[in-house]
Amino acid sequence: MIDMVRDSLGGETTETLSDTRILRYINQSYLELASRYGFDQLSSSTTITTSSGTASYELSVSDVMNITDLEDDTNNLKLYAMNEHQYRKYTQGGTTSGTPTYWFIDGVGSNSRWQLTLYPTPAGAYTINVYYDKVPTELVTSPAATSPVIPDIWDDSIIHRAISRGWRMLGDLEAADSWLSLARQNDAAAKKTLNHPSYIVTRPGSVIGRALQDV
User: Fold this and answer.
1) I need a surface site. Which of 74, 76, 89, 180 has the fewest CB within 10 A?
2) % of the chain at pLDDT higher than 90
3) pLDDT at position 194
4) Nearest in space to 133 (alpha carbons), one of 177, 67, 62
């Protein structure tokens, strides 16, 4: 990837454009795609075990990019997102204890990991499953070169974005825009790898009938 980006940036030498800088462009492009699209390969989960009377919990993982869902495994309930303004409004008259129904991100804890607050404040010990999209592991060249975990068809989307970033830093905005346009064209073709429909019926109706309606 580094060689392909360098070649497309006019063959700049390592003296003017180091491998480290190009690798930074590649990793930023990889991160941008991971943030924009929900790659199954970057899905993960962790758990929170609540304590009676404690509302806030620091997550045990540090690779969270976006939280997608919370579920109370003890009571088989889904928790819904709220914001801090709503939480303060609900707790103006004092805290309420019970089975948590809502959650919000209230910053980071003492270990610099995301911290969540649950509402109502848990009245007991519950197991809360936290589902999230994780930050992709940074690509490196040593001690052994690594590759993206997302489908290979996205490689050009990463490379073209890295080239666009390079031209932008070199001051050629027209070339930067052209390469970004190519990246987005590849995105359009690669999006098919994101489509994983479920055929489990969640409401009355015919799967075949719905498929025919989409034709």
Assistant:
1) 76
2) 81
3) 86
4) 67
Strand bridging mode 97-98 / 121-122: parallel
SS (H, E, C) 36-72: HCCCHHHEEEEEEECCCCCCEEECCCCCEEEEEEEEE
Return the axis-axis angle of helices 19-36 and 155-170, rounded to nearest 10°. Answer: 120
Tokens of 14: 């390592």
Dihedral, CA of residue 116, residue 118, residue 123 and residue 124, to nearest 10? -40
Q: Tell me which DSSP letter residue 186 carries.
A: H
Task: Decide which of 192 and 104 is more confident.
Answer: 104
Amino acid of residue 75? N
- What are the residues whose beta carbons fall under 8 Å from the beta carbon of 91, sequence distance 6 or more? 119
Would you tell me how many other CB atoms lie within 10 Å of the CB of residue 102?
17
> Which pLDDT belongs to residue 210?
57
Q: What is the DSSP string of 6-38?
A: HHHTT---TTTS-HHHHHHHHHHHHHHHHHHS-
